[in-house]
């Protein structure tokens, strides 16, 4: 067995350091959230307990943790559903060339390169100058769509560029209507990609800060609430909240991955059943 070159060990060490840099802060917060009742925001830890997690479920002197969580959750669902629907519609529309398609594409992508705080400021000004109430479910919802929709549309563009149109032609030859083609042929085939778009939409909305900062009105979403708590909370309850939100995000990702796995398993089973039926 030939000895590995020095570059292999260098790249391995670099990768390990990168992982520590990437996940080290999250792990540190997770460890400090288990401080004892007399613990603080820094090391060394003064005992180990679940005290600060229990404190989260009691009446808080500062902050509206669970109200902000419910707002972020509802807003994430709204953004997720809207992103999926519009992304599918946009992907279907861009399968054929039409006047202004190139300009429209670049306008969609532009919102990704504009600083998020400027979009938040612009959307907030539009709502306030129009006499509309600045609220997380209206202006905040619109501002977040400028962040999630481009990602959803880019995914759908890639999916439909690889889509085999012969499936649709076969369905039309069998008498299927345009809606039946989409419902029974297109959507089942692209279902795993739709799950990915939904995951992008929800997670990007759930933790979005800058585009919600000036568009949420008088009610904070969870990222804004956590930011506000950093100025007046001096106990590890803040770390406990960060740990719970991280676990919640991981659970959401796990649920979406499980759905994709079940869809792929179901499709493989149907394909094997069809193959046995033709033998």
Automatic annotation (TrEMBL):
<feature type="domain" description="ABC transmembrane type-1">
    <location>
        <begin position="69"/>
        <end position="256"/>
    </location>
</feature>
<feature type="transmembrane region" description="Helical">
    <location>
        <begin position="103"/>
        <end position="127"/>
    </location>
</feature>
<keyword id="KW-0812">Transmembrane</keyword>
<dbReference type="InterPro" id="IPR035906">
    <property type="entry name" value="MetI-like_sf"/>
</dbReference>
<keyword id="KW-0472">Membrane</keyword>
<dbReference type="GO" id="GO:0055085">
    <property type="term" value="P:transmembrane transport"/>
</dbReference>
<feature type="transmembrane region" description="Helical">
    <location>
        <begin position="181"/>
        <end position="204"/>
    </location>
</feature>
<dbReference type="GO" id="GO:0005886">
    <property type="term" value="C:plasma membrane"/>
</dbReference>
<feature type="transmembrane region" description="Helical">
    <location>
        <begin position="7"/>
        <end position="34"/>
    </location>
</feature>
<feature type="transmembrane region" description="Helical">
    <location>
        <begin position="139"/>
        <end position="160"/>
    </location>
</feature>
<dbReference type="InterPro" id="IPR051789">
    <property type="entry name" value="Bact_Polyamine_Transport"/>
</dbReference>
<protein>
    <submittedName>
        <fullName>ABC transporter permease</fullName>
    </submittedName>
</protein>
<comment type="similarity">
    <text>Belongs to the binding-protein-dependent transport system permease family. CysTW subfamily.</text>
</comment>
<keyword id="KW-1003">Cell membrane</keyword>
<dbReference type="Pfam" id="PF00528">
    <property type="entry name" value="BPD_transp_1"/>
</dbReference>
<feature type="transmembrane region" description="Helical">
    <location>
        <begin position="237"/>
        <end position="263"/>
    </location>
</feature>
<dbReference type="InterPro" id="IPR000515">
    <property type="entry name" value="MetI-like"/>
</dbReference>
<feature type="transmembrane region" description="Helical">
    <location>
        <begin position="73"/>
        <end position="94"/>
    </location>
</feature>
<keyword id="KW-0813">Transport</keyword>
<keyword id="KW-1133">Transmembrane helix</keyword>
């Amino acid at each position: 067995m030939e000895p590995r070159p020095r570059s292999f060990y260098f790249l391995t060490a670099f990768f390990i350091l990168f992982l520590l840099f990437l996940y080290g802060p999250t792990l540190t917060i997770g460890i400090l959230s288990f401080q004892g009742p007399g613990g603080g925001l820094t090391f060394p830890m003064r005992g180990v307990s679940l005290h600060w997690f229990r404190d989260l479920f009691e009446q808080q002197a500062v902050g509206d943790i669970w109200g902000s969580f419910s707002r972020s959750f509802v807003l994430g669902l709204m953004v997720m559903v809207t992103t999926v629907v519009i992304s599918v519609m946009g992907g279907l529309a861009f399968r054929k060339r039409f006047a202004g398609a190139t300009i429209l594409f670049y306008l969609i992508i532009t919102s990704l390169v504009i600083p998020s705080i400027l979009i938040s400021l612009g959307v907030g000004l539009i709502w306030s100058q129009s006499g509309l109430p600045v609220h997380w479910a209206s202006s905040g919802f619109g501002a977040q769509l400028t962040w999630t929709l481009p990602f959803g549309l880019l995914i759908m563009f890639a999916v439909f560029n690889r889509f085999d149109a012969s499936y649709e032609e076969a369905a039309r030859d069998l008498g299927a209507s345009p809606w039946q083609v989409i419902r029974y042929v297109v959507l089942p085939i692209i279902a795993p990609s739709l799950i990915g778009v939904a995951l992008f939409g929800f997670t990007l909305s759930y933790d979005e800060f800058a585009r919600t900062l000036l568009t949420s009105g008088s009610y904070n979403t969870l990222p804004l609430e956590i930011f506000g708590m950093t100025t007046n909370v001096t106990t590890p309850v803040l770390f406990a909240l960060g740990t719970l939100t991280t676990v919640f995000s991981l659970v959401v990702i796990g649920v979406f991955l499980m759905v994709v796995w079940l869809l792929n398993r179901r499709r493989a089973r149907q394909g094997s059943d069809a193959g046995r039926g033709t033998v």
